[in-house]
Amino acid sequence: MKFKNMILGALAFIFMVPTPAAKGAAKGIAFVKVIFLGNAGVGKTTLLNKIVGKPLSGDHHPTVGVNYVRLTEEDTALDIWDTAGQERYRSIALSFVRNSKIVVIVFSVDDTNSFGAIVTWLSLLRGYVDIENIKFILVANKTDLKERLVAEGEIQQKAESLGMPVYFCSAKTGEGVDELKGCMFNLAKEIPQKVTCSLETEELHENEDKKCC
To answer: How many domains does the chain have?
Structure first.
């Protein structure tokens, strides 16, 4: 099933056609593309599953390629792409950054390498998009763990230096999940260049400016 979702997501990206989740989308909704980035094992997929209300599973399988979900609230829809963090898949993951308006960078509080990789992800992004036109969110994940290797003060300092809001989250306990979800929707509503359209029409494909973000 995950492989099938990856293929559907890749086709949706390459051809800019709606995924199955997009069918039946109502007119007048603003679509905003969101992408989750971060090292492998930081809990991006589990966190996203918690955000969309999926039950937690004891089985963990690393994301291969990308996964896609949609969240809708009133007149705003977040098209969220969950990417693989393994180095061998980074070029695939980063290729999906195109047309993104919000980037969520996730690290784990028990993994200093993932915390240090924040600047690496930002550097890699510059090769694909103009980061000045993207809104960023920093997520300190797995806060339920007793043994934290990254201090809260250090995290706050990093977020301030990068000019990003930071959320301390746990998919296990639910800490910070609703706040993170609310932040994504709030940032989406602030974006002036949202596309209001119906994914059921072919008008999206007439030119680049009309494609949903």
So the answer is: 1
Please, which residues have CB within 8 angstroms of residue 171's CB and are 6 or more apart in sequence? 43, 46, 47, 49, 50, 56, 141, 142, 177
**Could you tell me what percentage of the chain is helix, strand and coil, using 3-state DSSP and rounding each to the nearest 5?**
40, 20, 40
The CA distances from residue 106 to 2, 111, 202, in Å, are 21, 11, 35
Q: What is the rounded distance in angstroms from the CA atom of residue 175 to the CA atom of residue 127?
A: 33
Query: The domain containing residue 159 runs over which residues?
Result: 2-210
Cα-flanking dihedrals φ and ψ of residue 64, to 5°? Answer: -110, 115
Residue 19 CA to residue 125 CA, distance in Å, equals 24
Q: What is the pLDDT of residues 115-149, one digit of tens each?
A: 999 999 999 898 888 999 999 999 999 999 999 99
What's 43's domain CATH number?
3.40.50.300
Q: How does strand 66-73 pair with strand 76-83? A: antiparallel
The predicted-structure confidence for 7-35, as pLDDT tens digits, reads as follows: 445 544 433 334 433 443 445 789 999 99
Task: Using the predicted structure, report yes or no on whether residue 181 has a pLDDT greater than 80.
Answer: yes
- Residues 127, 163: contact at Cβ < 8 Å? no
DSSP string, 123-136: HHHTTTS-GGG-EE
